[in-house]
Each structure stands twice: as structure tokens, then as C-alpha cells.
Specification:
The complex is a heterodimer of chains A (257) and B (252). Chain A has 257 residues and is mainly beta. Helix content of chain A is 9%, strand content 31%. In chain A, the strands form two sheets. In chain A, strands 1, 2, 3, 4, 5, 7, 8, 9, 10, 13 and 14 form an eleven-stranded mixed sheet that branches. In chain A, strands 6-16-15-11-12 form a five-stranded mixed sheet, with no helix packed on it. Chain A starts with 6 loop residues before the first strand and ends in a 9-residue tail after the last strand. Chain B has 252 residues and is mainly beta. Chain B is 8% helix and 41% strand. In chain B, the strands form three sheets. In chain B, strands 1, 2, 3, 4, 5, 6, 7, 8, 11, 12, 14 and 17 form a twelve-stranded mixed sheet that branches. At the A-B interface, β4 of A face β7 of B.
């Protein structure tokens, strides 16, 4: 069982997370505090859950190698080496010209969810969080290499888990990603193919999600690219935003210039 | 040394082979069927290899590969020896995959193949089920095929690396209801264990408890509810699993 009253936050130098109100979150984060990921369960990413992403693939959905549009939810793992928290420094691999910063709603589970009916889906949700699902850009989604999505710290989560009672409609939340020098990227959870409840139903039909696990609703189509030296600020609704810094592969993590 | 994890009389125990029986860490000896077998280790990240035996790749009509075909599995799919795996009604092709599972023992980053075995704690047997009816061509193999509840059977024992003389010469066998259906040898791995550790640790950090399922040889056939599937690997033991129906899981 995983439950929270308000906002769960795990400061980097504290042994356990705290459950605090919105004012306290702001006070705790204002001095540039670093955090750990507020959750420690398994993190599953959802692919092609944005109508714009499917639209962009167009007729190629019917051509080789895909042959048909997706039917069931398409998922992938973000393994434990990828998990990081607010103000993480993420290395851009040498061979990449940048990394895609996908901002997704993260659904945080509060109890064991197996074969969940759509009318009961929200009974299993403890809250929501912001997931910076980082990837090396790749065009084919047929059988992409794990090295595109599973690099260390390629899944930054937080800074808080927002209790479900604070989120009236998870299927209508504004998402923004700000990177200095680029126009602000704007998206919404409203463009999802599967709603939060539908996704929970379709995923738990074949795999159980446990308390503390995170399932992303999926990154929006056309997410921005970050380079070494960039700082990205990811926001959903009015929640405390998530900050991620990008460094070159040779730079030492956390080292200040 | 061989170690298992079992549930017995209200607690979880480390357990060891004692003839055909099981000795718990507290000294009690019980028959194999008296305990509930859990996966022999609590898995960290689970890697699985697609098409890592040349003959199996041919069986599935795949040509050569540029880099190992690795996918990831979650912790919820794992069950232990003598566990039960659900076969949904209305599927045509659900099959087992007997695989050598490599367990990482140390933090590993940028490991060269010459040093790779220093990072291996030991081995166990995996039966990595797939339901091909659900295969879709996005992020293959998709999790509905490969990450189902109860779809990854591990055990019965975790075997220390030093107790396996030559991990590159182990025969794998699968029987279904006593009939030999699958047979292969780890000498035929397309990408061998040192190369897999070198490859994975070149872009991510591996940690103790991470498991690499090294792929399966040719010889996969459909299984039905009620079938007993036994995967064996030389020196590691015999991993038993039974297929169950939707009705057994209250899904009718």
C-alpha cells in the first residue's frame, strides 16, 4: 500500500521522503535543492499514446516493418539505473547530437492493480508525478536498441508525487517544456489515444502494477531536443516543475563551472 | 553452492539441496513439494536477448544483427519453480523458452570482455514464455508478448559462478509432458556472456541482482493448459512449470 496526503518529496540529503503541503514544497525547493526520485517502484513508459504521434506516422503504420497500427498499449521499461530526481545532471552521449526530453504524466500506483475494470481504475492511483523520459532520438519504433532509452539517469522523476485528490482531471492537464533559447514546447494530456483510466485497464489486463510503480501516459509528439549545457524545466498543470540539466559525457556529474 | 528461496510455515527461507529434498537455513529438511518456491534471487533489472542462438533465429526467419537484440522485463512477471503460468483462452501459439540466466554480482560500468566474468555472481535457469498472437511491430517484442504476469519462471537454484566449470558448454533441454522438444548448447550463443556484459555496461550501469536472460535455442512448440514444462540446464538443475487456463485464474 502506498498512500499520500498531499505532496511527497524526497530531498537528496534526507533518508526518507516527506509528505508536505504545497507551500512547504515551494519553500523546500526555492534554494535550488536537489531531490531524489520520490518513488522507487518499477517505471513503465507508454509509446505512441499521442494522437499527433500516430498522425505523423500516417501511412507508414500500414507499411513494413509495422504492417498495421498498434492495437494493445506499447510499453517499455525504464530500468533502475535510469531513475534520478529533480535537478539531476544528465550526460548526453558522445555519439548523440542531443537527447529528446519527453515530458509525461506519471501515474503512481497506490495498490496492487491486476485486471482492473475501467470504472475502478482510479481506485488504484495514489497520485501523479512528472516524468522526464529522456531518449536518444531514433526514427524507427520497430525494434529500437535499449541504449536509446536505458542510459543512466534517463528517467528523471518528481519533484513531487501529487496526491490524487489534488488532480481533478488527469486527462486534461497542460504540459510544458522550457529550454532556454527555444520556444516553449506546449502539449496536453487531452491528446492521448488512451485516457488514464483506459490505459490502466488495458495494461493491467496482462501485467500487474504494484504499489509505488509508475506508468507514464506517454511522451507528447515532437518533444524538444536538449544539448550539453541546456537546462530543461518540465511542468504539468500548476505543480512544482521538474528541472534537469544536461552535461557532456566527459563532464563530471554535479561539478559546477 | 546452490541456493534457493522458499516460503515455508509463514516465513521466507534460504534453502539448499539435500539429496532430493530441501534443507532450510534453520536446519529443517522438507520434501520439494512441501515448500513454495520463489525466484532464487530478487531480480533487479531483467534483460532478455532475442534471437541469440543462430538456429532459433533461422527458425523465426531472422537474418544477421548489427547489435544484440536486448529488451527489458519488469519484476512483476517473475515467478519461481513449480509455479503456474496462465494461457489465455483463444490464443494459438504460446511457447516456453529455456534460457541460461546470468546474475550480475558487482556494479559494472564500461567493463571489457576480458574482465566480464569478474562481474558475474552466478547462474540460474529461466523459462521466458511468449504469446506470439500478441506480437506487434512496435518496440518488439512488446510487453504483452513478453512481460505477462507469471511469464518468466526462474530457478530452482541460484548457482555460484565458481561452481560452473564452463558456462560456454552447457546443454539446455526442454520437455513438455515428458517429451523432449527443445535442445541446444550455450556454445552456440550469437553474442556470448562476456560480450553481453561489455555491450550493456558500455551505455548503462549494471548492479548486483541484475539478470541477463541469454536467449533460447530452436525447438519451441505451443503449450496448452495442463501441460508440464520442464527446462533443464547441465549442472543448474531442473525448472518445472505448469500451464493453467483462464478459468483457473477466475477469468471466464
Amino acid at each position: 500500500m502506498f498512500a499520500l496526503a498531499d505532496y511527497l518529496i524526497h530531498l537528496e540529503d534526507e533518508p526518507l521522503p516527506r509528505d508536505v503541503d504545497a507551500q512547504q514544497v515551494l519553500a523546500m525547493l526555492s534554494p535550488g535543492t536537489k531531490c531524489r526520485a520520490p518513488v522507487t517502484g518499477a517505471v513503465y513508459g507508454t509509446l505512441l499514446n499521442d494522437r499527433a504521434a500516430l498522425l505523423a506516422l500516417g501511412d507508414t503504420l500500414h507499411a513494413a516493418p509495422y504492417k498495421a497500427p498498434p492495437k494493445a498499449p506499447i510499453l517499455y521499461l525504464k530500468p533502475r539505473n535510469t531513475l534520478a530526481g529533480h535537478r539531476a545532471h544528465v550526460e548526453i552521449p558522445k555519439e548523440a547530437t542531443g537527447v529528446e526530453v519527453g515530458a509525461s504524466l506519471g501515474i503512481v500506483f497506490g495498490r496492487t492493480a491486476t485486471h482492473v475494470g475501467i470504472d475502478h481504475a482510479f481506485d488504484y492511483v495514489a497520485g501523479y508525478t512528472i516524468v522526464a523520459d529522456i531518449s536518444v532520438p531514433h526514427t524507427s519504433v520497430y525494434r529500437p536498441s535499449v541504449r536509446f532509452r536505458a542510459r543512466d539517469k534517463f528517467c528523471v522523476i518528481g519533484p513531487t508525487v501529487v496526491a490524487q485528490r489534488h488532480v481533478a482531471d488527469p486527462d486534461n492537464l497542460a504540459i510544458t517544456v522550457k529550454i532556454a533559447g527555444q520556444p516553449t514546447f506546449v502539449a496536453s494530456t487531452a491528446s492521448s489515444v488512451r485516457s488514464v483510466a483506459q490505459l490502466i485497464t488495458d495494461v493491467t489486463e496482462f501485467m500487474t502494477l504494484s504499489a509505488g510503480d509508475v506508468l507514464t501516459l506517454g511522451v507528447p509528439h515532437g518533444s524538444p531536443i536538449a544539448q550539453a549545457g541546456d537546462e530543461a524545466t518540465l511542468a504539468i498543470g500548476s505543480w512544482a516543475p521538474l528541472c534537469v540539466s544536461f552535461v557532456g559525457e566527459d563532464d563530471r556529474d554535479g561539478e559546477q563551472p | 553452492m546452490k541456493r534457493g528461496r522458499v516460503a515455508y510455515a509463514g516465513a521466507i527461507h534460504e534453502a539448499y539441496p539435500e539429496g532430493n529434498d530441501v534443507r532450510l537455513a534453520d536446519g529443517r529438511v522438507r520434501q520439494e513439494h512441501e515448500v513454495v518456491w520463489l525466484p532464487p534471487i530478487e531480480p533487479g533489472t531483467i534483460f532478455a536477448l532475442g534471437l541469440n542462438y543462430a538456429e532459433h533465429a533461422k527458425e523465426l526467419q531472422f537474418s544477421s544483427q548489427e547489435e544484440p537484440l536486448v529488451f527489458l522485463k519488469g519484476p512483476g512477471t517473475v515467478i519461481g519453480h513449480r509455479g503456474v503460468t496462465r494461457r489465455p483462452a483463444n490464443v494459438a501459439f504460446m511457447h516456453y523458452e529455456c534460457e541460461l540466466a546470468v546474475v550480475i554480482g558487482r556494479i559494472a560500468k564500461n567493463v571489457r570482455r576480458e574482465a566480464a566474468f569478474d562481474y558475474v555472481a552466478g547462474y540460474t535457469i529461466a523459462n521466458d514464455y511468449a504469446i506470439r498472437d500478441y506480437l506487434e511491430n512496435y518496440y518488439r517484442p512488446n510487453l504483452r508478448v513478453k512481460n505477462r504476469d507469471g511469464g518468466t519462471v526462474l530457478g530452482p537454484w541460484f548457482v555460484d559462478a565458481k561452481d560452473v566449470a564452463d558456462v560456454g558448454q552447457l546443454e539446455l533441454r526442454t520437455t513438455v509432458n515428458g517429451t523432449l522438444q527443445q535442445r541446444g548448447n550455450t556454445r552456440d550463443l550469437v553474442t556470448d556472456i562476456p560480450a553481453l556484459i561489455e555491450y550493456l555496461s558500455s551505455f548503462m550501469t549494471l548492479a548486483p541482482g541484475d539478470i541477463i536472460l541469454t536467449g533460447t535455442p530452436e525447438g519451441v512448440v505451443n503449450v496448452n493448459a495442463g501441460d508440464e514444462v520442464v527446462c533443464e540446464i547441465d549442472g543448474l538443475g531442473r525448472l518445472v512449470n505448469v500451464i493453467a487456463s483462464d478459468a483457473d485464474f477466475g477469468r471466464v
